[in-house]
Amino acid sequence: MIKKTAVYMVLGLFVLFSATAVAEAENYSKTIQVFKESPVVAEFFKNAYGYAVFPTVGKAGFVIGGSYGKGQVYRGGKVTGKSALVEGSIGLQLGGEAFSEIIFFQDKRAYDEFTSGEFEFGATAQAVAITAGVQAKAGTEGATAGASTGPKTSVQANTQYHKGMVTFVHAKGGLMYEASIGGQKFTFEPL
Questions:
Q1: How far is Cα of residue 95 from the mean position of the Cα atoms in its chain?
Q2: What SS3 state is found at 161?
Q3: What is the mean pLDDT of residues 44-48?
Q4: What are the φ and ψ backbone dihedral angles of 82, each rounded to 5 degrees?
Q5: What confidence tier does 140 reach under pLDDT thresholds 50, 70, 90?
Q6: In this prediction, what percent of the chain has a pLDDT beyond 70?
Q7: Which DSSP state fits 170?
Q8: Residues 6+ apart with CB under 8 A from 4
Q9: Residues near 167 by Cβ (< 8 Å), separated by ≥ 6?
């Protein structure tokens, strides 16, 4: 009975956040501007080969969790395709949250790897949060990442590319308690 209730709760929260993600999916320029306001992130816009931006990713979980968001991929400041992010996780988790995510590609190799069709970050994935209180969990593979106290403060995490990619997240709302493992999977559809 508890498993069935948990599954229904996760599915309900997932649908709620997915609807929010779809409703806000067209708001790419506003999301990009939020990331550009962070001094650390702004540097990546100047030097990256390209990036993928997901304005709203909805995440929900109760033992089993999931995330979903739609995004666009850019190269040279121009949209080159659409992307979808799906994440599954298992472990101690409860609640729901919404966040924006951006992934920078250092070079053509990293961009090509992401846009090859089915790309995924493993369970060791990490990201740098640009808002206080966000867990630095989802993002590029690597053992190092940290969180900052906010996009407009001078206290920022020291970040760098790992295997040609770096990811940042920006909390939008919700509350999520979690100690889980999972991975993000991305699809790409060229324009």
A1: 17
A2: coil
A3: 95
A4: -110, 150
A5: very low
A6: 69
A7: E
A8: none
A9: 101, 102, 103, 104, 121, 125, 126, 127, 128, 138, 139, 140
Q: Residue 19 pLDDT > 90, yes or no? A: no
CB contact set of 47 (below 8 Å; sequence gap of 6+):
none
Q: Is the pLDDT of residue 78 over 80?
A: yes
Across residues 4-18, what is the average pLDDT?
Answer: 52
Least Cα distance to 111 among 136, 148, 74, 77 occurs for 74
Distances from the Cα of 79 to the Cαs of 72, 148, 191, in angstroms? Answer: 7, 29, 8
> For residues 57 and 87, what is the distance between their CA atoms, to the nearest angstrom?
10
Total residues belonging to the chain? 191
Q: E-assigned strands of the chain?
A: 50-75, 78-105, 118-121, 125-126, 128-129, 140-141, 165-190
Under a CB-based contact definition with an 8 Å cutoff, are residues 125 and 141 in contact?
A: yes
The helix (run of H) or strand (run of E) holding residue 33 is helix 28-36
DSSP annotation string for 90-144: EEEEEEEEEEEEEEEE-SHHHHHHHTTSEEEE-TTEE-EESSTT--S-SSEESS-
What is the C-alpha separation between 128 and 147, in angstroms, rounded?
A: 5
Per-domain boundaries in the chain: 2-190
* Lookup: tokens for 186: 């991305």
- In percent, the amount of the chain with pLDDT more than 90 equals 49
